[in-house]
Design brief:
single chain, six-stranded antiparallel beta sheet, three-stranded mixed beta sheet, about 25% strand, disordered C terminus
Length: about 210
């Protein structure tokens, strides 16, 4: 069963908004993703999935610190993306204040792993850039995830997958340079994407202040 994760209002300079999963993650396991408190003023809040993504593996998606005006926060998925778990992850509104942008997966992550991850607009303010997967994740797992332009302004950096996602799911996704300006960060996949879709995706932003 496909599920859509979305932000129903823009993340503004004041950070008002609500992120929610509008339907349960059913099939192999029920779950609910929600922001337990409003993102106001300093944008205090906590984003989490309070039940496991079952089927092939348990997991929890959460933001353990508030997303403030300076963009504090930590987003991580500690569970595998399984064959049982079709879905769509997207932010339908711009990330304003520090920079515009839209991150979305326009297709399901299926058994064959077809899908496309992209940022359809530049991350402006602190730096330009575009994140996209230019080819599908197929049964053989061929594909390449890359940032086709540097994150300039406050800091240079390139995001890329330097090895193919193969049948055994070998590969490593990482950003070896910091996201500067408002905060450093590192995006990486520290485990292989296997036939069952095991893997771990971690994105961190740490304030410079």
């Amino acid at each position: 069963m496909e599920v859509a994760l979305q932000d129903t209002s823009p993340w503004t300079g004041e950070g008002h908004g609500e992120l929610q999963n509008t339907s349960p993650w059913t099939g192999e396991g029920h779950g609910e993703l929600q922001d337990m408190s409003p993102w106001t003023g300093e944008v205090h809040g906590e984003l989490q999935d309070t039940s496991p993504w079952t089927g092939e593996g348990h997991g929890e998606l959460q933001d353990t610190s508030p997303w403030t005006g300076e963009g504090h926060g930590e987003l991580q998925d500690m569970s595998p993306r399984t064959g049982e778990g079709h879905g769509e992850f997207q932010d339908t509104s711009p990330w304003t204040g520090e920079g515009h942008g839209e991150l979305q997966d326009t297709s399901s992550w299926t058994v064959e792993g077809h899908g496309e991850l992209q940022d359809t607009s530049p991350w402006t303010g602190e730096g330009h850039g575009e994140l996209q997967d230019t080819s599908p994740w197929t049964g053989e797992g061929h594909g390449e995830l890359q940032d086709t332009s540097l994150w300039t302004g406050e800091g240079h950096g390139a995001l890329q997958d330097t090895s193919p996602c193969t049948g055994e799911g070998h590969g490593e996704l990482q950003d070896t340079s910091p996201w500067t300006g408002e905060g450093h960060g590192e995006l990486q996949d520290t485990s292989p994407w296997t036939g069952e879709g095991h893997g771990e995706w971690i994105a961190r932003k740490i304030s410079l202040k």
